[in-house]
Every structure is written in structure tokens, then in C-alpha cells.
Input
Amino acid sequence: MTTSLTEDQQALVETTLDFAQDHLAPHALQWDQDKHFPLDVLRKAAGVGLGGVYVREEAGGSGLGRADGVLVFEALASGCPSIAGYLSIHNMVAWMIDRYGDPAQRARWLPGLCAMDDLGSYCLTEPGAGSDAAALTTRAERDGEHYVLTGVKQFISGAGAARLYLVMARTGEDGASGISAFVVDRDDVGLSFGPNEKKMGWNAQPTRQVVLDGVRVPADRLLGRAGDGFRIAMSGLNGGRLGIAACSLGGARTALNRSLAYLADREAFGARLLDSPALQFRLADMATELAAARALVRQAAQALDRGDPQSPQLCAMAKRFATDTGYSVADRALQLHGGYGYLSEYGVEKIVRDLRVHQILEGTNEIMRVIVARGLTAALT
Output
């Protein structure tokens, strides 16, 4: 994992792996079973700089780039993909406020986000507007020095526990150009939440509807300019996709490592399972595919850091390939465990359940293919 990394990056990986193994891995199964969101552990993560990974240092963040961030989230997910996934989303929100907020907004919100005294949630998806995000119907009507927000957001990670909600709402005409971004506070009158969704995985973090029933917010809660919301949302997702891709790598790597240990301990027909050439070939394929996915994720992260105009396509490629690969590797790891892989105590089935949603969130993998194909065809027109 640390091949070709700088000394600083190797130290970053080691520190994050230590945190994941000390504070996430020992509790991951219990959190999943109890549907427990470990707020105390999140604040411990902030203590080692994981609450504002991409936020500038003067605002209390770690000031890291995406090439460093993918190392962080792969390492975190080795302990628990569900908690690592939420931290990726929280950091996406913090980066968006740091990148698009004015000085007063940055001073107001970033210290709490970086310390994780305040958690952040990203509110784009709606019950009737998932992949077609530009068709969202949540409205923000201007009323003097305020906006009044009305609508429902769906599948919102951290909802209810989070303090700040980055909400995309329509302030103008239909389509992407009529969308603006707002920061809504949990205590704003008219904001409420649906019940915690019953999910296949990601049980260690809440997922709920966010209901805005005439939520009245001051005009200074507008992030950026009116009409910039869709562009802001998409720029945030470029980095968010890399975070989720890296989480898939970390979870799958843990599943692969557990398979190696399991096969080394088990015997069948008078020999260790690990000595079977057929099983060795499976392990070799899994390791090779993860290495290829990791290389693509890191390439995309470097492109995003340097502002490469092809970075949106590269981020889409990386997200699609790494999340498909991560899930596939975890699923094969379960198979290599035989019947034991289906038991919760071995932890592999949890990884499979957690990684499955990565192929859906931050833009489905079908939409990733659309983004890549558009980039290819645009070069011909």
C-alpha cells in the first residue's frame, strides 16, 4: 500500500491505520449490530486531523490534497467502511464550505466541523430526483433578507446527528442553472427528520430523510452565488467519489487479508487450503485487481489536485472501477471462507454489505459510465 509514497505520506498512512485498528476495527461488528453511531470516536478522529482533511490549515483543517486523502480513507476503511464512508461525506461538506464560503461563513462553520463538534451532511438526493439531480424540486424562495426552504431530501447520511446540512434547492428556473446551495442548521425551525432507514449495510451511521417545511434562513446562509448550487454540488462530488472509492479499497483489503489468514489456518484433504494452487490463483487475482483499482484512484486524485480538466472523467472512472472491484473482492473473500463467511463473527459479510452501497452513492456506477462516455464523445464534436 505504501509503495512509491513519500515519507510524509507513509507516516500519514501509518497514523491513520493505527487509529483505524485501535478505535474502529474492535467495535465495528457491534456498532453494525446495534446501529450505533459512535460520536465519541468521530471526535477522536478529529483529534488526529480527520475532521477537516481538505480544509485549509488557517481554518483549523489538515490542508491535505486529494492524493493524501485517498490514502487516509483507504486506511480508515480497513477498520470500518461505514464510519470511513461517513467521514468522507463530512469532509466533502467541510471542503465545500472552505472552497465556496465567504470569510464570515468559513469562520462561522469550519472550526466546529474540523473539530467534529458539529457534523455535516450533504443534501442533494430527493425521493424523485436521484441520478437526475438537476431535476430536484426542493425550493428556496427569497423573502426579503431570508430564504424559505421547502422540500424533502432522501438517503442523507448522518441526518439527525449532524448539525449542518448543505442543501441544494431551486431558486430559479428548471434545470441545473436554477439551483443554489444553502447551509441549514439542525435547530432551524421547520427542519425535521424521517425515521432511521433499515438498511443492508452502513448500519453504524444513520440514514434518514431531511424534511424542510418552510425553513426560514438568513440570506447569508447562501453558499456562493444564487444559481451556483449545481456546480458546487458536482465539484464536491468529484472528491467525494474518490473518498468512497478509497473506502472500497480499504474494506476489500481487509477482506482479502482475512481470507489469507483463514486459508492458512484451515486444512482439507490433508493440506492447508492456502497451499491449493486454485485458491492461490483466486487470491492473486483479488490482489491484482485491488492494485489496479488503487493505481487508478491515485491517478485520479493527483489529476484533481492539479486541476486537470479531465479530472471529472478520471474521478468517475476511479469510482466505478474501485467500487465494483472492492465489492467483487469482498464477495469472493466471503466465498473463500465457506460457510464461516456467512457468519457475522468473521466480519467478512459485514464488509460485503457495507461495500455494496458504494456502487450506488455519490452517483451510481451507471452514471459514472455516462460521465466517462460524455468525456469520450465530447472530444469528437
